[in-house]
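Hi team,

Filling in the usual template for the complex we talked about on Friday. All components are listed, including any nucleic acid strands or ligand strings, so the model treats them as one assembly.

SUBMITTER: L.P.
PURPOSE: interface mapping
COMPONENTS: two
RESIDUES: 402
SEQUENCES:
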Amino acid sequence: MSFSPLVDRLMESLRVLPGVGPKTAQRMAMHLLERDREGGKRLADVLAMAVEEVGYCRRCRTLTEQDICTLCESARRDDAVLCVVESPADQLAIEDAGGYRGRYFVLHGHLSPLDGIGPEDIGLDQLETRVAEGGVEELILATNPTVEGEATAHYIATQLAPLGVKLSRLAYGVPMGGELEYVDGGTLSRAFNGRLPFQSD
Amino acid sequence: MSFSPLVDRLMESLRVLPGVGPKTAQRMAMHLLERDREGGKRLADVLAMAVEEVGYCRRCRTLTEQDICTLCESARRDDAVLCVVESPADQLAIEDAGGYRGRYFVLHGHLSPLDGIGPEDIGLDQLETRVAEGGVEELILATNPTVEGEATAHYIATQLAPLGVKLSRLAYGVPMGGELEYVDGGTLSRAFNGRLPFQSD
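RESULT (copied from the run log):
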């Protein structure tokens, strides 16, 4: 871009961040160099450490630098319910929503034969072992409501059904706070088919 | 937030970036850890190097890791015109606009007696020395069109007038491509007062 190779490289490097284009990268670089070098130093240190040390939890495969993640180690979660998600981001969303007190299992993706992603790549052997060990009464298949997510949920259900575990899937329907006018047709027809008896409080 | 102290620290650290709140920081952390560790590693390295090594150009005070910045060293710029800006970001904006072929001088701020920012803090002694050395015929005072920027430009003009250099200021007026309806009153009256003879091509 201009006057300093290293500043240019910094702007370029910041663009690995999602949603950061050239203008935003420039603003970020200027902010860090002009106003918050200490914060920039801290970010560099933590980021270097994180990409180096963060791996998968041995038990649930979520992102963690520990052998077993904090959530798996917590004594306050219910071992009888296991929620299967596609990504740690999905897990965070469910945790942020609050209310769920069971454990998780993170696939890091979904089945995709065309991309060569098979059951062992998303840890299904490990999931099967865990369910077979006993203790899990319900398996919530919280993969995404997409074609790939549905197919993955279906595959897991087929594989684990013989183990006698109760299998469930998140409810489909119209999102809370939305307006019907703007809900897509597919969601709307699922919501119609899955309609429930009206309950007055 | 959740399951890994280091991932939490990474999300927290990403928030030093301007415009990055908790949700964006989470998305960035997940993206780097799940999909682009190499980019994350590179960003960490470059950022650590930049906050450590980038200083001010000895000649124009812009951000650079070199003793003299690339632009000051370039033989293809006009030594006779010197543009004074408040920040390297302003300099980048002018460079991106194209057309200007002179040199720069970066103040890194503006005069602000209440905050204890005096002439020496924004390098005015250095600017005066440079102009006194000769060679600079025109000094463009491109500080921001704000109260502080105006005051700073006025102060510099007063100090350097005795040196016999030609002083100029960027034109005020309605921005290109804007609609008059949405231009603020101050800008509009400056544009009226500064109106120019109509030129047909």
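MY TAKE: The beta strands of chain B are 55-56, 63-64, 78-85, 102-106, 138-141, 166-169. Chain B touches chain A through 61 residues (CB under 8 Å).

Thanks, L.
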